[in-house]
Specification:
mainly alpha; 5 helices; 69% helix; elongated
Amino acid sequence: MKKQILTAAAMLLIATTPALAEGMGHHHGSRHAMLKQADSNHDGKVSKREFLAAVTKRAEKRFAHMDVNHDGVLDKRDHRAHFDAMDTNHDGNISRDEFEAFHEKMKREK
């Protein structure tokens, strides 16, 4: 059980890192877009509440995407489905190119 929880946590971290990094400003244009989107009261500033709400919304979208069978739990079946989707040459390994291609596809599907 502990191993499953750690695996699920690692999956969530891996899946949310690109979105969080993008939203946290690793790209200037992305930072501006994220701040504009997070500024829910349009006062030109992002409060902690607004920031956390925006990050939570992104994390919830990622979780929903990762929960392939929509049972509210990330488990081995969800992990396997995502692994298989990334392993496009079906060699049992995920190369950097496969990993990056998968995450580029996820960005386009947002």
